[in-house]
Amino acid sequence: MMQPDQSTIHIVSANLGRWLGSELPKAAVDAARATLTTHVSSGRLRGAWVMAFGEDLHLHVTTFNGDFLAGGDASEFAAEATLAAALAALSKGFEMGLGSATTVGAKAGARFAPAPTAEALDLRRLDYPFTERGAEPIFVAKALNASWGFFNRALFNLYFNPDKGSGHRIEGNDFVAIVESIADLKAVGAGAKRAPAQVRTYEFGPAQGNELLALVTDPDDWRLSEVYAVKGRFGEGKYRDEPAARVAGGRNPVFIGRSQSGLPAIGEFTQAVGEFYFGPGGPEGGYHVGLVPATFAEAHSPAAADGIARVVAYAYQSYDKGRIPDGDVVDIFAQNLSETRSLQRESMRYVRHMTTHGEFEPYLNAETAVSRAESIAEQLKARFEPIPDGADPVVAAANRRALFTISDIKADSGGRVGHTTPPGHFGPVAEASLQEAKEAGLIFDTSEFIAVGDDGHLLMTHTQGADSNDIHLLAYKTFFRQVWTAEVLGYKWYGLGQDLVGDASAGKATEELADLTERFVSLLPDTLPEAERQRFGELRTAFDRWRAGLGGGRTPAPPFSGNVSGQGPGFAELPMPRAAPVGLLAIDKAGPAAFNLPVWESLRRCRADESLAHYLEGSDARGVVLEIWDVERHRRIFLDFETEAGFAQRLLGATDKFNFKRIWTRTGAWSAERGAWSVEQVVGDILLAASTEKLAIITGGEYRGKDDPVLLCVEPLANALNLFMRDRFYMTQGDGRGSHNMFPTPLAFGEAIATVNSRAVSVAAMISFDARGEIRAVRDVFADPAYDEARDRAFRLNKAIWDAHGGNFSPVGVGASKVEQSYPLAKMIARITAEGSPYESKRR
Question: What is the CATH number of the domain that holds 47?
């Protein structure tokens, strides 16, 4: 209910740039200003202030209810006055020869009907009621090239973050947040046929900070639209319904607030909208753009670099029921240009790294990436085929061409102290298991166990080919032999059997799953560390009792791991037609999406420098084919890199939906029309293979995504991948609980452990072979000092971007749609948004 002594600020943005085709000329802005000035002189408006920010004519007017007691409505008058001012500016632009009146849909700007004009001019409006009380400055910020939820982080820092805002520190003011569904706001604003009857709106009080964070940290889905004080002088009595801050607008959103008691002067506001973070913006709001503070002069021009949202801010002290002091509207970021330039340089450092993601997440937001990918998938649906649950004829053909195969099969079987490193006896147990396989002639003599973070990798060469059931079974039972040893000795390793124990192991004893043999057990004393060797008698007794049927069989216990278990071992296998060097890239604490961008950029590099073409000289290769998996629908597609790269990029940009599985040589002519030819007839050797799926023995062919991925590839691709990791910074899902985007730091094998922070870590190796295929050397690529600068950059940028987003706000936090539905975040959002939710706002 508006009070007679209440004033209202009306901020209207009109997109005139779309019609005038350039930055708005001073004469057009002056025409709008002159129109509004007449209403100030007549007493209907208390104040009017006009600027051109980017393509927008920015109109800021104030009404006072007391001026309308004799009749009329203040809000309606303000709407009519600002529309007339916008049309006056537009008409002036037309008079100057800019744009064309006919392009707007009418003969002249002055004859527009009000409703079509509002739509044509993309009018966005914010109304802010307030009662003028002493020295409470008004603060306004506008984010150019930003979208709906861009100011979420700023508002949270200002009013709810005890480390940023001063409200809690100064007078203990408490605040309520109003959060709205952006999908509903868009639908209502667009007049969609299925627009909701009302926008889903939720309210969170001072004791509901976790619930508030659950929504607003995903500003692509939810907007923190209003803040109210609920405690102190201005949170009670007749002022309690006046917002402390409000946000409006889906394009170039505007934020307004006043410095109430508990938020001193302007400093806190300036910090909130001046310090760097990423938020939604860019074309159609489909990207994550970085906050860059800007002066009025800088914000005047609509041109800006990709990936940034220029935030312009101003403040003034109102007087006489809403009047704006002439000459004393402060351009916030022009006051101290040295500080602003420093903030701009810092912001651009982060923006440059984000934009190098190109059309991949997380520069591209998830919704946009998925929408684009699904559109391409629908276009190409006839070319998708089910992933074979049994023998894969394409892989079988590559196996027939191979001299030998290199396999990396990995699993997280448990960690010593959390998700850090495998226990000391895991490697020796694996060595005994591999030795048994070597004696049987299944694998070559130089096969070995290596650790990456808390994952154990079995690096093996053999002549069984890729997708060999015997090789996969060897790996599976080797990992369970590690579990069996720990169980017998009573060790309580963190996440024991994490990737192994699940539906596939249900109802079976560990001894059966480990396929224990006399030879394996007899080899253990030669490989076990001294502590476990001293207790070998316990292992021998447990084995003998089980083999004699005297009991002792153990059912694997559900792993205590704090996250998802039973995901199964992952694997990458490369059939080699000759003994050429092979590169390995492995990441701990990331998902299969971690390879999309590096592999894509490495392919582009290899094409540009022709290194892959040189490698393939003398072979029957005529190009490169990408095998991409639709990881949700258990299907795949083969795309020619030269002629169908655009399709591939759109698919791979949605990193959680589509992943690289293999890269092949193309040996025959390629046609988008499959017709009479099949893929196995036109592809030859595998150039790269990634652990996009788990061992089939675990999942029965069902794909759910394999964390902590590994890939193997030929030398030119490996060199390009290593250069990417050295020279670039990119963000991929992983980190703590798999729910954050961060860069996987390149580290030497011995240091690839998450310690202070649960960041993803990566290792790389270059593997050489003798003529038969025995491993001759494994070179630790990232141990080279050439990667020191990359490590420093990774540590520095990871921390800075994490801190800027509080470890929760996207694109650092990935949002509920990208985490397991059993995680607390997903559960909390489901509870908040359920029908009849106690958080539904009564205020709107």
Answer: 3.30.70
Please write the tens of the pLDDT for every residue from 525-574: 999 999 999 999 999 999 999 999 887 677 766 554 444 444 678 899 99
Paired tokens of 728: 């670039």
Tell how far CA 236 is from the center of its chain. Answer: 40
Say if CB 312 and CB 304 are below 8 A apart: no
58 and 24 in contact (C-beta within 8 Å)? Answer: no
Report yes or no on 154 lying in a domain: no
Last residue of a domain, one of 130, 151, 172: 130
The reported pLDDT for the residue numbered 613 is 95
- pLDDT tens-digit series, residues 484-496: 999 999 999 988 8
**369 is written with which tokens?**
């990436």
How far, in Å, CA of 344 to CA of 191, rounded?
38
Query: What number is the average pLDDT over the span 786-802?
Result: 96
Cα–Cα distances in angstroms (integers) from residue 834 to residues 188, 216, 305, 428, 727, in the given order: 21, 17, 41, 51, 46
State what percent of residues in the chain have pLDDT above 70.
Answer: 89
DSSP secondary structure letter of residue 646? H
696-718 pLDDT per residue, tens:
434 343 334 447 899 999 999 99
More confident call, 702 vs 640: 640
Q: In the numeric block, which tokens belong to residue 762?
A: 């990566």
Residue 695 has pLDDT above 70, yes or no: no
How far is it, in rounded angstroms, from Cα 454 to Cα 618?
A: 42
Residue type, position 370, single letter: V
Half-sphere exposure of 483 (CA within 13 A, CB side): 33
Domain total of the chain: 2
What is the distance of C-alpha 843 from the center of its chain?
33
DSSP state of 710: E
C-alpha angle 656/659/662, rounded to 5°?
165
Residue 432: pLDDT over 80: yes
Q: Tell which of 130, 154, 178 closes a domain.
A: 130
pTM above 0.85, yes or no: yes
Place of tokens 């109430």: 260
pLDDT of residue 69: 86
Classify burial at 492, counting beta carbons within 10 Å of its beta carbon; exposed 0-12, middle 13-18, buried 19 or more.
Answer: exposed
Q: Where are the alpha helices (DSSP H) in 638-714?
A: 645-653, 679-682, 696-699
Residue 566, pLDDT score: 46
* Residue bearing tokens 């310090």: 275
Residue 29 lies in a domain: yes
Does any domain span residue 746?
yes
**583 in Cβ contact with 717 (< 8 Å):** yes
Q: Is the dihedral of CA 501, 504, 510, 514 positive or negative?
A: negative
Q: How far is 416 from 228, CA to CA, in rounded Å?
A: 48
Q: For residue 574, what are its two tokens?
A: 């490369």
Residue 530 within a domain: yes
Cβ burial of 318 (10 Å; 0-12, 13-18, 19+) is buried
Helix (H) or strand (E) holding 483: helix 469-489
* Tokens coding 107: 């003969």
What is the reported pLDDT for 168? 53
Tell me the pLDDT tens digit for each residue of 77-107: 999 999 999 999 999 999 999 986 555 544 3
Backbone region of residue 284 per phi and psi (left: phi > 0; alpha: psi in -120 to 50; beta: other values): left
Domain enclosing residue 533, as ranges: 385-542+560-809
Cβ burial, residue 448 (10 Å; 0-12/13-18/19+): middle
Per-residue H/E/C for 427-443 = HHHHHHHHHHHHHCCCC
- pLDDT greater than 80 at residue 169: no
220 Cβ contact partners less than 8 Å away, ≥ 6 residues apart? 148, 149, 182, 280, 285, 365, 366, 367, 810, 815
- pLDDT at residue number 737: 62
Q: Is 112's pLDDT higher than 60?
A: no
What is the reported pLDDT for 495? 84
Neighbours of 182 (CB within 10 A): 24
To which residue do tokens 């005139």 refer?
A: 16
